[in-house]
Write a structure and sequence with these properties.
Layout lengths: L2 H16 L2 H17 L31 H5 L3
Protein name: DUF2281 domain-containing protein
Organism: Floridaenema evergladense BLCC-F167
Pfam families: DUF2281
């Protein structure tokens, strides 16, 4: 820390100590908010497991066959 930033930190702490406890808590909450907003920690992966549901689904043999006109006309 340079002397200038140390001076600024000292001034900040002095000003912070002059505030009432409720406002000190607001400052602490805001600092925590900024720390979370600007933290660049990588997010944890979602825990997906490749192949977890392998062979659990099926598709009919006529899946890609054209549908009858009745289906499209709402007559079924």
């Amino acid at each position: 820390m340079t002397s200038k930033s140390s001076y600024s930190a000292r001034n900040f702490l002095i000003k912070l100590q002059t505030l009432p406890p409720e406002q000190q808590q607001q400052v602490a909450d805001f600092v925590e908010f900024l720390a979370q907003k600007y933290s660049y920690t990588p997010q944890q992966k979602s825990g997906r497991v490749l192949g977890l549901h392998k062979d659990m689904g099926w598709m009919s043999e006529d899946f890609d066959a054209p549908l009858a006109d009745e289906f499209w006309l709402g007559e079924l």
